[in-house]
């Protein structure tokens, strides 16, 4: 301290405070502190907080959207596989049903064919029988007529007539 | 002011700048509240307030250029000097640290601002004021945090030290906490600004004086001015650095007072 005094040749000691400056210093600094505390720092902090929240909110929103998309994907895949298995089941069903229908139709057709064949057989048999009967009658009548002509004997008795015809036909068959 | 003296002292012996040049007379009469340093301090409070209120008034997520400028300074003090050093309770001290930083920085830079050219902190009163406030703040914080007895005990008897060492350590600790810390923090700021301004005056006034001398001296004077300009750049560095150091030390002291082990 003293060397400054000496070197400066009676200059004031710069280390001694000045009362007016001390007072002004405290007041000025206090005022500035008040302005910073009330006006500046809260606003900056608000901006910082808003910024942090904006960034965090953005990340959270993105994460949520991603999770939603993943969920939707899983859902779609599930639905797709369900639809696929359903269509598979339907196809299998249809195949089985188709086979059953074909089988049924075939059985029906066979039955029908059998029935038609049987009917035809029956009708043929009936016609044959009818033909045999009518032939027998005609042949009988012819034969009787012939015989009566030959024998000259009227065989009008029905029973006898038929007996004779039968005998004649038996003979005819035996002779064949 | 010096230049007027110098003109009058043309041809005379060069009077080197001294601590006299830091004692500026009152501008209005003999009211000692009207000196240049006092006006500068008030002016600094006004311009800092205007700047930061304007910068923060419409603070939004996407900052404007002005907001970005103010916010960068604020974020630097808040995070690098507050959060990193004080720890989780830092937010309580951010307004103080921030005020301290911008107040000292602005007043220091006044030293190289054309037409102002006087670093307010080269008046030790202001440095003392800031030192006293820091001193008060960190002791208050320590007492509130630990309780007065534990705080004093921890200062007097640093935990984890062998007992005989206290004979040596206790006086040092007392001196550190009560005298050295507030005094050195103030003196460091004051002395840097004082010496820097003195250095600038020597080169600029010296150059001016040389210009008024003989032809040979006139030729030398540009070198003095050039050196003065170089010193100005250097001073800018010192001015920023001193604002940083003062704030850093304050944060360290507060952090130390809050710490559970000294």
Automatic annotation (TrEMBL), chain A:
One of its GO terms (cellular component) is proton-transporting ATP synthase complex. GO terms for biological process: proton motive force-driven ATP synthesis. The chain crosses the membrane at residues 22-41. Keywords: ATP synthesis, Cell membrane, CF(0), Coiled coil, Hydrogen ion transport, Ion transport, Membrane, Transmembrane, Transmembrane helix, Transport. Residues 59-93 form a coiled coil. It is found in: Endomembrane system; Membrane. InterPro entries: ATP_synth_B-like_membr_sf, ATP_synth_b/b'su_bac/chlpt, ATP_synth_F0_bsu_bac, ATP_synthase_B_chain. One of its GO terms (molecular function) is proton-transporting ATPase activity, rotational mechanism. It is a single-pass membrane protein. Pfam families: ATP-synt_B. HAMAP family: ATP_synth_b_bprime (MF_01398). F(1)F(0) ATP synthase produces ATP from ADP in the presence of a proton or sodium gradient. F-type ATPases consist of two structural domains, F(1) containing the extramembraneous catalytic core and F(0) containing the membrane proton channel, linked together by a central stalk and a peripheral stalk. During catalysis, ATP synthesis in the catalytic domain of F(1) is coupled via a rotary mechanism of the central stalk subunits to proton translocation. Belongs to the ATPase B chain family. This is Unannotated protein. It comes from freshwater metagenome.
């Amino acid at each position: 301290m003293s060397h400054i005094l000496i070197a400066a040749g009676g200059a004031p000691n710069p280390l001694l405070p000045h009362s007016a400056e001390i007072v002004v210093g405290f007041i000025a600094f206090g005022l500035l502190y008040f302005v910073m505390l009330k006006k500046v720092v809260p606003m900056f902090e608000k901006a910082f907080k808003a910024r942090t929240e904006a960034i965090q909110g953005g990340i959270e929103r993105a994460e949520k959207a991603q999770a939603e998309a993943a969920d939707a994907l899983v859902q779609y895949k599930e639905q797709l596989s369900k639809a696929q298995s359903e269509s598979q089941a339907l196809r299998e069903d249809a195949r089985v049903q188709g086979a059953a229908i074909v089988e049924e139709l075939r059985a029906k057709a066979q039955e029908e064919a059998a029935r038609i064949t049987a009917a035809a057989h029956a009708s043929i048999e009936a016609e044959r029988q009818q033909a045999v009967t009518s032939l027998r009658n005609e042949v009988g009548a012819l034969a009787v007529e012939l015989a009566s002509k030959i024998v000259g004997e009227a065989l009008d008795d029905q029973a006898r007539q038929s007996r004779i015809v039968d005998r004649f036909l038996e003979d005819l068959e035996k002779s064949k | 002011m010096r230049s007027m003296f110098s003109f009058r002292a043309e041809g005379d012996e060069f009077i080197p700048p001294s601590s006299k040049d830091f004692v500026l007379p009152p501008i209005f009469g003999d009211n000692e509240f009207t000196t240049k340093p006092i006006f500068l301090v008030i002016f600094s409070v006004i311009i800092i307030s205007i700047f930061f209120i304007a910068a923060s008034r419409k603070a939004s997520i996407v900052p404007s250029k002005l907001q970005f400028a103010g916010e960068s300074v604020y974020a630097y003090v808040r995070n690098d000097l507050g959060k990193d050093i004080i720890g989780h309770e830092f937010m309580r001290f951010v307004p103080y640290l921030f005020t301290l930083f911008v107040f000292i920085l602005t007043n220091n830079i006044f030293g190289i601002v054309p037409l102002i050219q006087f670093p307010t902190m080269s008046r030790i009163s202001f440095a003392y004021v800031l030192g006293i406030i820091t001193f008060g703040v960190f002791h208050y914080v320590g007492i509130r945090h630990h309780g007065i007895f534990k705080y004093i005990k921890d200062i007097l008897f640093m935990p984890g030290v062998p007992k005989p060492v206290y004979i040596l350590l206790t006086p040092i600790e007392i001196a550190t906490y009560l005298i050295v810390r507030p005094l050195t923090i103030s003196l460091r700021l004051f002395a840097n600004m004082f010496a820097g301004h003195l250095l600038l005056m020597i080169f600029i006034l010296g150059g001016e004086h040389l210009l008024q001398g003989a032809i040979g001296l006139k030729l030398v004077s540009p070198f003095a001015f050039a050196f003065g300009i170089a010193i100005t750049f250097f001073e800018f560095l010192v001015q920023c650095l001193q604002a940083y150091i003062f704030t850093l030390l304050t944060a360290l002291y507060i952090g130390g007072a809050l710490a559970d082990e000294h």
